[in-house]
Structures are given as C-alpha cells and as structure tokens.
C-alpha cells in the first residue's frame, strides 16, 4: 500500500485492515499523510490512474475517511 501512496508525499501511518479470524486483508485500509494537501493529491492522482487491485476485484477506490461522531457514552 505504501508503494502506491508514497509518491504523493510523506506518510505518517498506513494500516491494512485484516480479519481477526484468519488475518487476511479485508480489502480496506487507511493512509495518513503528514500534510493534508498530499492526501488530496493522492486521491486525485489515484482516481485518475485507475489502479486495479492485485486480486482483480476492481479499481482501487480512494476517499477521505469518514469522521466518527462521538456517541453519548464517550467523553466530549
């Protein structure tokens, strides 16, 4: 995953989501860039590149992560 996103700027963290039962990739992940403008450049660049995933399950989809709203039982 880092190989795909690194050309767009310094990466702070990259996480691949896996299933707990077998540790296989779920097909989702998160990349956090050091600079927010690099994240937008990556989104624009990867969408235009039409990168196909190795497993052949369609093109790579990129977007900004949805922010979770705090629930009533979480401190605000």
TrEMBL record:
Transmembrane segments: none annotated. Signal peptide: none annotated. GO terms for molecular function: RNA binding. The keyword RNA-binding applies. Keywords: RNA-binding. InterPro entries: Nucleotide-bd_a/b_plait_sf (IPR012677), RBD_domain_sf (IPR035979), RRM_dom (IPR000504). Residues 1-67 form the RRM domain. This is RRM domain-containing protein.
């Amino acid at each position: 995953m880092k190989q795909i996103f690194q050309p767009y700027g310094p990466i702070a963290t990259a996480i691949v989501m896996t299933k707990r039962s077998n540790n296989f990739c779920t097909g989702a992940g998160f990349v956090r860039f050091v600079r927010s403008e690099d994240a937008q450049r990556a989104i624009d660049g990867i969408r235009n590149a039409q990168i196909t995933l190795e497993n052949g399950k369609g093109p790579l989809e990129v977007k900004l992560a949805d922010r979770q709203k705090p629930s009533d039982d979480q401190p605000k």
